[in-house]
Design a protein that fits this description.
The chain has 14 helices and four strands. The chain has about 290 residues and is of the alpha+beta class. The longest helix is centred in the middle third of the chain and has 20 residues. The chain starts with a helix and ends with a strand.
């Protein structure tokens, strides 16, 4: 019964991904959006689908691959796409080539929705697990954990389901009433599992503690730019290094990302970002890759 219910929910959600409804949803839940994409989204929501897609296509043609803006444009092209296949192609490119983009976790979530719709539950769970691992406290983490719990229970994997329930509870906010209700549905199963000791004494607790320790270790950097060639990245890195910034180039192939510092909080990274804008460097805050 619950598997049928899950499938219906996921299919309905995926169907909404293409068209004006999802354009509005993406805008509401997204990071600050550049005005050109806001204009394109307005066109799509008012029925001017072709015009909206044309605006995004023009941005892609004028933007260098490997840059934060390119990833943003890919996200909006996927959101406005006429077909699931085209949307999946762009979401997958974001997930693979732009893993630290602010849009990466939502791209992974939508890939999971698409995989579930066509019955590939294993791939869907892999995408959702990646969100838990790489974005444990991101904007999509609670929804991803709830969906992972649903799929895991549907597959008969109670241990993974309860671990996902635990992870979801760590990131719920007061506004997540519906998500909390869905988790409450599974609470008796996890309580019974813990009582029987079927999976050892610390299985669910370990999942929760893993998320907590990840949060404690998380650092933030300012990504100043990303380039197709390493030579271009080194020019900017040298420029920033001479100004006293701790700079590194991330990536062994394109895009080569120029990143500044490792800061314990997003607020501290934001201070450095404001400093960099004074020397005409327009970057973005990202979760620092592990050393």
């Amino acid at each position: 019964m619950y598997r049928l219910r899950i499938s219906r929910i996921v299919i309905a959600t995926c169907a909404a991904t293409f068209g004006s409804a999802v354009a509005a949803m993406a805008q509401a839940a997204a990071p600050a959006t550049e005005s050109v994409f806001v204009r394109a989204q307005r066109m799509v929501t008012t029925g001017q689908d072709s015009a909206g897609r044309a605006v995004v296509d023009s941005v892609l043609r004028a933007t260098d691959a490997g840059t934060p803006r390119y990833a943003e444009a890919l996200f909006w092209r996927a959101t406005f796409s006429k077909t699931a296949a085209a949307a999946e192609r762009d979401y997958r490119q974001i997930a693979v080539e732009y893993p630290l983009s602010p849009r990466a976790q939502e791209a992974l979530f939508r890939l999971a929705q698409l995989e579930t719709t066509r019955g590939d539950r294993a791939s869907a769970r892999a995408h959702l697990t990646r969100i838990q691992r790489e974005h444990p406290y991101g904007s999509m983490s609670a929804r991803a954990s709830v969906m992972l719990a649903q799929l895991s229970f549907g597959d008969g994997d109670i241990v993974a389901g309860c671990a996902a329930v635990s992870a979801a509870r760590e990131t719920l906010t007061a506004a997540d009433v519906e998500l909390r209700n869905q988790l409450d549905y599974y609470t008796p199963r996890c309580t019974n599992l813990a009582a029987t000791g079927a999976v050892g004494d610390t299985t669910v607790t370990a999942a929760r503690n893993t998320g907590t320790s990840t949060k404690a270790r998380q650092e933030y950097s300012v990504q100043a730019a990303a380039y197709v060639t390493r030579d271009s990245a080194e020019v900017l890195a040298k420029r920033l290094s001479t100004r006293g910034y701790n700079v590194r180039i991330v990536g062994t192939s394109k895009p080569f990302r120029v990143r500044v510092g490792r800061y314990p909080t997003r607020d501290r990274a934001a201070e450095v970002l404001r400093e960099l804008t004074q020397v005409n460097v327009k970057g973005m805050i990202v979760e620092a890759e592990r050393p």
